[in-house]
Write a structure and sequence with these properties.
Helix 2 crosses helix 3. The chain has helices at residues 2-13, 43-52, 72-87, 102-108; strands at 22-26, 29-31, 38-41, 61-64, 92-95. A hairpin with a 2-residue loop joins strand 1 and strand 2 (29-31). It is built from 4 helices and 5 strands. The protein is globular.
Length: 128
C-alpha cells in the first residue's frame, strides 16, 4: 500500500524511525504515536476519523493525492472536506492529481485557487 511505502520513505529521509513524527494508518495496521505529526493514511481511515472527530481537531493540513480516481469513498471524502473547510477556515486542503480539472475542483471548493506544476514525460522503451 502506498501510504506505508511513502511514510517509510519520508521517515527514512528524515532519519527517524517510522511511528515517530512520521506514521501511517491503513486498514488493520497502524504505526504512529503521540509525537506523530505527519500521518499517511487511506481514504477509509480518514473517513473513520471524521466520524469520530467531525472537525479534525489538531489537524492543520489534509493532502488528498490522485483525486481524479473517483469512487464512493473518495467522493464522500471530498464532500466532507468541503463542508469542513466552511467550518474551519484555518484548515488547508490540498488536492493533487496529474489529470484533474483544477478549475472544476476549485469551484467545488468555493473558488479555491489552483496551481499547475509543470512536469515532463520520459520516453519508454518496450522490451518483449
Amino acid at each position: 500500500i502506498s501510504a506505508i511505502s511513502v511514510a517509510e520513505r519520508v521517515s527514512d529521509e528524515r532519519g527517524e524511525p517510522i511511528g515517530g513524527s512520521v506514521g501511517y494508518a491503513v486498514r488493520l495496521e497502524k504505526k504512529s504515536g503521540p509525537s506523530t505529526c505527519l500521518l499517511f493514511c487511506t481514504t477509509g481511515i480518514l473517513l473513520r476519523r471524521l466520524e469520530q472527530d467531525t472537525d479534525l481537531d489538531g489537524t492543520t493540513h489534509v493532502v488528498v493525492d490522485e483525486v481524479h480516481e473517483r469512487g464512493v469513498e473518495s467522493d464522500f471524502l471530498l464532500l466532507a472536506l468541503r463542508d469542513l473547510c466552511r467550518r474551519r477556515t484555518d484548515l488547508k486542503v490540498i488536492l493533487m492529481s496529474a489529470t484533474m480539472d483544477k478549475d472544476l475542483f476549485g469551484r467545488y471548493f468555493g473558488g479555491a485557487p489552483g496551481l499547475t506544476v509543470p512536469g515532463r514525460t520520459f520516453p519508454v522503451d518496450d522490451f518483449f
